[in-house]
Design a protein that fits this description.
Elements: H1 5-9, H2 12-37, H3 42-53, H4 61-68, H5 72-84, E1 88-92, E2 100-104, H6 106-113, H7 120-126, H8 131-150, E3 166-167, E4 177-179, E5 184-186, H9 188-191
Bound molecules: iron/sulfur cluster.
């Protein structure tokens, strides 16, 4: 049990587990304080970032709910608050009208453009660490994230590069890349957007 200091004393994974837990607490506190300055909650900011960086055809209410680990109903409440403030647009997907797509309004885009420093705490804390140590750290964290992802505890949205379904430069100029999962050609711009179905080819 990572919360027991005696257990941590002789157990490296428990010490690291506790360190990650403490980091998550600090991140929560700092991101909340940063969000307050914009008059939004941190989860509302996450919604704006989701709409900004997720590929438009998968920027759905359901995927947003999964990304932040909440229920569909709670996600809808969060998003409705942003729709009322004219920061997010909701529209029905043409192929399936039961699916609601999210996009930023121009006002929402303005807020996202102001978010350059949001969540900078971690970046700042990692800067002084030497590159070699960071490389090991990245592999270790990748392994933890991959395990949590496989167990269904989190969704990792990433652009197409590095995804097992990605076949780059197999199409024409307009839509040069192919996704084996959705069986569609993608524009280069779409392949640079985050996708909740990204399945890393990185083996840990
Ligand atoms: S599943 Fe992979 S290749 Fe397909 S769109 Fe998503 S990230 Fe790109």
């Amino acid at each position: 049990m990572i919360f027991d200091p005696q257990h941590r004393k002789d157990n490296r994974s428990a010490r690291i587990g506790m360190a990650l837990f403490r980091m998550s607490q600090a991140i929560k506190k700092v991101t909340q304080a940063e969000s307050d300055t914009l008059g939004l909650s941190s989860v509302q900011i996450q919604a704006l970032l989701f709409a900004a960086y997720t590929r438009s055809d998968v920027a759905t209410v359901g995927n947003f709910a999964n990304t932040i680990g909440t229920t569909h109903v709670t996600a809808v409440k969060i998003l409705n608050g942003l729709v009322r403030r004219e920061l997010i647009n909701k529209s029905q997907k043409a192929e399936d009208r039961r699916v609601t797509l999210l996009s930023l309004t121009s006002k929402g885009r303005e807020i996202v453009n102001k978010l350059d420093n949001w969540g900078h705490l971690l970046d700042d804390a990692l800067q002084p660490i030497p590159e070699e140590l960071l490389a090991h750290f990245e592999i270790g964290l990748g392994s933890i994230i991959s395990t949590l992802q496989k167990e269904g505890h989190l969704i990792v949205s990433e652009p197409c590069l590095g995804c097992i379904h990605f076949l780059p430069n197999t199409g024409d100029i307009a839509a040069p890349h192919y996704c084996k999962m959705i069986q569609k050609y993608l524009t280069h711009e779409a392949s640079l957007q985050e996708c909740p179905e990204h399945t890393s080819s990185f083996k840990v």
